[in-house]
Structure of 1,4-dihydroxy-2-naphthoate octaprenyltransferase:
Amino acid sequence: MKTDYKPLTWPLFLELIRLPAKTASLLPFLLGTAYAYYAYGQFNWLNTLIYFIGQMSIAFFVTGFNNVQDYYKAKDLAYRGRDNILGREHLNPHHMMALMLVFLIIACSMGILLIIRTNLVLLFIGGLAILIAITYTAGPVPLSRMPLGEILSGLCEGFGTIFIAAYVNMPKQLPIAMYFDGWHFVITANLAVILTLFVIALPIVILDGGVMYADNICDLQQDMKNQRFTLPYYLGKQRAVKLYPFVPGMAFVFVLIGILIGWLPWLMIIVFGLIPVVIRNTKAFLAVQDKGKTFITAIQNLLSVASLEVAVLVAMDIIRLLKS
């Protein structure tokens, strides 16, 4: 029997890729770009533009692809027909998958351009990120159905994005590179720069993982019906909720470490002015774990801290430009 599918309208497309949530990908990109100029005085506008297109394309792909995979893999038919956008809006899953593959092709094309313009090692870094993005909801045992989502989400969207955004702006001082000498190849790495970028990224890594953690707490009952056994499932909801306040707490700890070491400017201390806001958001989530009511507080914690960090670094970059 032929199914009558609805056309993909612009509002449905924006919901399919969850455009408002793409700031979670945009802010780490901006932070990495701004930090490359703040710390190393390097900015390559063309590489930055290419990476921006590639990064947003992969972000669109991941969200849309996850929606398609969740539709196919749903064990709970009520979830498939009511909560998943493809089932609820009667969208053609084959067409949606084809559209997501277009975004993947764009992302891979931008990645190839960056490899040509920087170094071959970016092939392995970007390739690993794309592999994680695909296997997150695809394959016989998707990563999203294991207690790995929080770690992988934080590392890929947090550290991965920040590292590559800084990397493509540093063609004269690559943190890691691969060179061929006949049948031999040599890998060089500046461990100091890599460690610096990792510590700088940790607050975003933690808060980004916290968003996934809060999402999984809210979806625990639904996930169990669909045989998704995430970290809150193994911890148990009560223990998972008790651990939640440590997420933003650790993020602020690493902001402070970055300042004390000297890798972040002292002006970054104003980020601690957000503590009352983060505490209020955290208390709201601890009181009620609801996807429609309080899950947004986890996103607000991430966006507020990341936005202020970016603003501080951009201000320092402007001061540097004015002095030069």
Summary: The two ends are 69 Å apart (CA to CA).
